[in-house]
Amino acid sequence: MITAGTRVAGVIGSPVGHSLSPVLHNAAFAQLGLDWVYLAFEVAPGEARAALDAMRVLGLAGLSVTMPHKEAVADAVDELDATARSLHSVNTVVARSDGSLVGYSTDGNGLVASLAAAGVAVAGRTTCVLGAGGAARAICHALAQAGAASVAVVNRTAAAAEVAAALAVAGGVAIGSVGTAREIAAADIVINATSVGMGTSDLPFDPALLHAGQVVADIVYHPRETALLRAARSAGAITVEGLGMLVQQAALQQQLWHGAMPDVAVMTAAVA
């Protein structure tokens, strides 16, 4: 039951009417027995700073941030953690007891966690990331931090690929590079970090490049089995659905907000 003491969190973005985040997070709050509620807030492009001002005034405990506000929020929070600072992108805002707002990014670690949940270890593996947008950049950074041997970025625009690849640094060692079809075929782990395949049967690259022994992950979760994952499975590759990343990054957000890690199985069941 919602009371005057119920803590409020939510997601800001445009559009957010399709978001699964309220279902995910409210299931987590219920499982943890927390008196919290999570709502979706439609925030027009250019209004991210105003939304954070409202967060302060209204006493919201936490925010998820989706497109198109991730970079604007990075500019507007009081502090950034190291990952969010490197990416200049925020998908999670935590309200401290002193009223300050801290920005984090859980996207990349969510992808790595989804691979781990599927029994796929990143350490020592060659990886290839399709795309160079915000999600791709976060994933490149997280793969390097998780011990990947290399991160090749394949993107239509080489300059954007170079920016994403430059984020793949661990222990001061750069392991990122701009890749081509050759790197897709050679990689141990291939990750589609583009929106290609969302609600369509489109493929981000020629599936003939795929083969048995590879792991193919897709951040697209609608449909849950994308055309890429079907093609990868047909080629004998291990596949990892995008819903896993969505759930895992949300679980990491929960931990940042209140300190407890929810049961990801409960969250997954809520949206499956």
Summarize the structure.
With 272 residues, the protein is an alpha/beta fold. It has eleven helices and 14 strands.
Biggest sheet record = 6 strands, mixed
Please name the CATH topology of the largest domain.
Answer: Rossmann fold
**How many E strands?**
14
CATH class of the largest domain: Alpha Beta
User: What's the arrangement of strands in the largest beta sheet?
Assistant: 2-1-3-5-6-4
CATH superfamily of the largest domain: NAD(P)-binding Rossmann-like Domain
Q: What percentage of residues falls in helices of 4 or more residues? A: 25-40%
Query: Mean pLDDT, nearest integer?
Result: 96
Distance linking N and C termini:
25 Å
**Helix/strand class:** alpha/beta
Write the topology of this structure:
Elements: E1 7-13, H1 21-32, E2 36-42, H2 48-58, E3 62-65, H3 70-76, E4 79-80, H4 82-87, E5 92-95, E6 101-104, H5 107-117, E7 126-130, H6 134-145, E8 150-154, H7 158-165, E9 169-170, E10 173-174, E11 176-178, H8 181-186, E12 189-192, E13 215-218, H9 227-234, E14 238-240, H10 242-258, H11 264-271
Parallel strand pairs: 1-2, 1-3, 4-6, 7-8, 7-12, 8-11, 12-13, 13-14
Antiparallel strand pairs: 3-5, 5-6, 9-10
